[in-house]
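Exam revision sheet. Question 4 asks you to relate a sequence to its structure. Input first:
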Amino acid sequence: MPRILLITAVLIGLTACQSSSQNVESLPLEEKKRRLEKLRQDLLNLQAQITELERLIQAEDSAFGLARQIPVSFIVLKPRPFAAYLQFQGSVDNREVINLSAKILAPVSRIYVREGQNVAAGQILLEQEAEVLRKNLAELKTRLELTRTLYEKQKKLYEEGIGSEVQYLTTKNNKEALEASIATLEEQLRNAQIRAPFSGQVDAIQARVGEILSPGVPAIRLVSSGQWEIKSEIPESFLSTVSAGKEVEVHIPDLGVSFPSQIANVSRNINPLSRTFTVIVREVPADIKAQLRPNLIAYIRIPQSKATEALIVPIDAIQFQDTSAYAYVVRGDRARRVRVRVVSTERGEAAIVGPVKSGDTLVTTGAALVTDGQRVQLVAENM
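Answer key, C-alpha cells:
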C-alpha cells in the first residue's frame, strides 16, 4: 500500500509540473524567480520520493535496479609516479622590516621619499628642522679657521724658540675644543636626519611635513628586499621527520605560486604551551621575492612517501565502510565491488593496492550510486 501511494504522489507531481509549463515570458521578474524556486523545491521533493520508492522496491525485490544501466564516469588505471606530503601552515616573514623614528624632538622640514620607492643603504629619507644647529655650526667653522691660523703661527714661533709654551698650548687647546664642538654639532645634524639602514622599499610614511616628530614615534616603515623567509610552527610529534637541509615545497595560495626549497633551520626549543617547534625556509626565487608581503599565509609541504609507480585514483572513487575501503571495477557491463587498501592520499587523489591492476576500469563519479553487480554505462573518462 505505501508503494502505491508514493507512485500516485509522483504521478500527481508530474502532472502538476506539466500543467504549469505555460508561457511565463510575460510574467514579472519577481514572479519568475518565485516560480523557479518553487520548481526547484518540487524537484527535490520528487527526488526524495523516487529514492524512497527505490528503497521500498529493493526491500521486496533484491534484483530490482541491477537490470537497468547507471551512467558513471570512469578511469583506466595506469601506474604513474606519486608522492605524498605532510603540509603545515606558516607565514611569510621578513627579518628586516623596521619602523624608523627620529632621534631628536623637532618639526619635519622635508620628506625625500614616497611610499613604494626603493632606496639604498644610507640614503636620507626624512629631515627635521635644524636651522639653529646649522647657524651655530657655520659660526664655529668660521672661528675654527681663525684659530687654526693662530695655532699654526704660534706653533712655528714655538718651534723656533720664540714665544712661550703656554701660548702655544693655549692656541692648540682652543683649536681642538672648536674641532670637538663642530664634530658634536655635525653629529646632532645627522640625528636630525632619518637614513635607510639597509636597501629596501619604503612601505609606509607616518610622518607629515610640519608636524613635530618625537624620538621613538614611528615615522617611516622600511622593508628589506632580500631578507625573506617562511616560518611554520610544527607539532613536536613530527620532530623526527623534519631536519635542516630537507627538501620541501613551499606554496603561497594568495599569490598562486609554489617553489622547491629546503629547510634552513629547525628550532631546538619546544613551545611548552603549543607543543610545537619552529621551522624556517629561507631560499626563495628572486622573481617571487618581489611579490612577497609580510604575514602572507604560506604552506610548507614536506615529502612523506614517494613511489616511482603507483595506481592513482580520485579519492571520490573510494567508498569507506567502517575501517575498510572499497572500489568498483567494471567487468563487462557490470560493476564489481573489490576491497582495496589506501596507501596514501594527496590533493584529492589516493594511491591504492589490492585486487586491481594496470588497465582495469574503475568507477569514479557515480560510485556511490551503484551496487555490486550493477549494470553501468561508461559515459565520461576522468583523465
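Marking note for examiners. The first helix runs from residue 2 to 19.
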